Amino acid sequence: MAKDWKTRTQLVHTGSRRSQYGEMAEAIFLTQGFVYDSAESAEARFVKTEGDQFIYARYGNPTTRMFEERIAAIEGTEDAFATASGMAAVNGALVSLCRAGDRVVAARALFGSCLYILEEILGRFGVEIVLVDGTDIEQWRAALTPGTKAVFFESVSNPTLEVIDIKAVAELAHAVGALVVVDNVFATPIFSKAVELGADVVIYSTTKHIDGQGRALGGVVCGTTEYIRGTLEPYMKHTGGSMSPFNAWIMLNGMATLDLRCRAMAESALKIATALDCDARLSRVIHPSLDSHPHKALATAQMGSGGTMIALEIAAGKDAAFRFLNALEIIKISNNLGDAKSIATHPATTTHQRLPEDQKATLGITPGLVRLSVGLEDADDLIADLRRALDAI
């Protein structure tokens, strides 16, 4: 029956487990270990764990399992594994999959920590890393040679909001036997159609929209049961990157309002982007739903929405961008996103500061670029706040 439920219903009910007390809210099982009826039952469980049998919280926990089943249901995958953070999810998904001699083709426009995992960690251990312009299908075609192990990209890039054609890249990747691994944070689980379009593995930082209130770190990897339990889980449970039960409980509570929040935030983002689009103090307003965005049609087809993020390029550069940021009142300066509170970030000096200057320039991360994560405040109040801040430059 649960498979027939709509998204909002699944976000509230899927994967629920109730104890003998019949509690309404999801219970937090704050335990690191579990008791066995006998030495024989302990032996049997270590040989094979099934259903709701658990061994150790690093391997699995009832609260964490509720979250995993719920996110897998709305993402459309067979299974999921919850991790300690979004970067633990990226690291686990890629490192568990690859070994020395493998080849990974990835989009060049990635979060700095993702590039570190590819170039510094995987590269150090003998994995060949090839970076391409993710929006250029011909570059993917040329790079995806037979024997490529995986492709990796952000479906909507951070911070310049490039949109990658998941279906086209997936077809090329599958033709050479490569697994398609997609970081889907900016698309959100609400607007995502990544699995339908050919993604094999989907990653989220649940710190972002899923928690949505800036309370806790978390990540999740969604995929087939074979991949999650056969490839990822052994790596994660032995290296200790799993999510805590308390954080899983926070994520479960965040999911109940996820659809409502994401749709409200996306509606406000489009209103704000449209209002600022012709402001002469901005050299660019980037939002996938604007007519000026080169990938508007693709974003509409893949997500049905432009999402909750905007990028603004202050024409006068870094000093003007800093004056703009310092003049904001409602919108807070931080480096998170997907929060109920609107957040402004200067990527060139924070989230992407470790990138060489020429690479920043290639990716469009200019000194005047400001990333804006739109929250749940009234859109008109946010527009007024942004215009006041623009006056200050």
Describe this structure in words.
- The protein is of the alpha/beta class.
- It folds into 2 domains: 2-255, Aspartate Aminotransferase, domain 2 (3-Layer(aba) Sandwich); 259-391, Alpha-Beta Complex (Aspartate Aminotransferase, domain 1).
- The chain has helices at residues 7-13, 39-47, 62-75, 86-95, 112-124, 137-143, 166-175, 188-191, 225-239, 245-255, 258-276, 296-303, 318-327, 357-363, 379-391; strands spanning 79-83, 103-107, 128-132, 150-154, 179-183, 201-205, 219-223, 282-286, 309-314, 332-333, 343-345, 369-373.
- It has a 7-stranded mixed sheet with strand order 1-7-6-5-4-2-3, sandwiched between helices.
- Helix 5 links the parallel strand 2 and strand 3 (128-132).
- The longest helix is centred in the last third of the chain and has 19 residues, at 258-276.
- The model has no long low-confidence stretch (mean pLDDT 95).
Primary descriptors:
single chain, 393 residues, alpha/beta, Aspartate Aminotransferase, domain 2, Aspartate Aminotransferase, domain 1, 2 domains, five-stranded mixed beta sheet, 15 helices, 12 strands
Brief summary:
It contains 15 helices and twelve strands. By secondary structure, the protein is an alpha/beta fold.
